[in-house]
Amino acid sequence: MANSTVTIAVEDGTLPAQWYPPKLPDAPTLVVCQEIFGVTDYIRRRCQDLNDLGYGVLAPEFYWRVADDGPVPEITETGEDALQQAMALAGRLDFTAATSDGVAAVEWAQDSAPAVGLIGFCFGGGLAFAIAAQTDPAVLVSYYGSALPSLFDLAPQVTAPSLHHFGEVDSFIDADAQAAIREAVSAHGAVWQSHPGADHAFDNDAAGWFHPESSANAWQATIAFLATHLPVGGND
């Protein structure tokens, strides 16, 4: 089925989201949390990849809050000053409000799906972690969550089976920061996967940090983790 835009009521407005319905009505749903660039073509491709596995997929457009009455922003990763533009956008977004939006998205998905999981990339990796602390999803997969160093206090509240991916040469989250994150999340049962030679955002095939080998390895591990903790066919 083709994806469509749905709207989700939140306390102070309406959250738009891209919805990829599952082929089977009783399939679980994954809520995908965007990178710092927005719900870009890369994020939409990953949503389609997950949908092709049988999941319903919901991608909230968190930047609606900084849209200034225009289209929800998204930035082409290869554009001039793309990272600076994205960081400026993220800097304008209230993280607490975005977390509340994510909670609403999970609750929307729970209305029709038997189980709901979270997966986030970059900015969305930390955001998904914060949302998981408030919603108790069936599973959490976080790719190089950039906000995680400021979210350690939430670790005891994230009780879902969790998988964290990090590149070993991440330009934004160095080895010491990664060690601290790993200690905090592993204390509560999270699985950690390091990727040699990979920088930040190594999964994004539209960005300069793309590392094909790490991307492929991480994706296979993600698929296996989801199949174990949020199987499309249930527990039969």
Automatic annotation (TrEMBL):
Pfam families: DLH
Residues in Dienelactone hydrolase domain copies: 19-229
InterPro entries: AB_hydrolase_fold, Dienelactn_hydro, Dienelactone_hydrolase-like
Gene3D superfamilies for the chain: alpha/beta hydrolase
UniProt cross-references to SUPFAM superfamilies, sorted A to Z: alpha/beta-Hydrolases (SSF53474)
GO molecular function annotations of the record: hydrolase activity
Protein name per Swiss-Prot or TrEMBL: Carboxymethylenebutenolidase
Organism this protein belongs to: Naumannella halotolerans
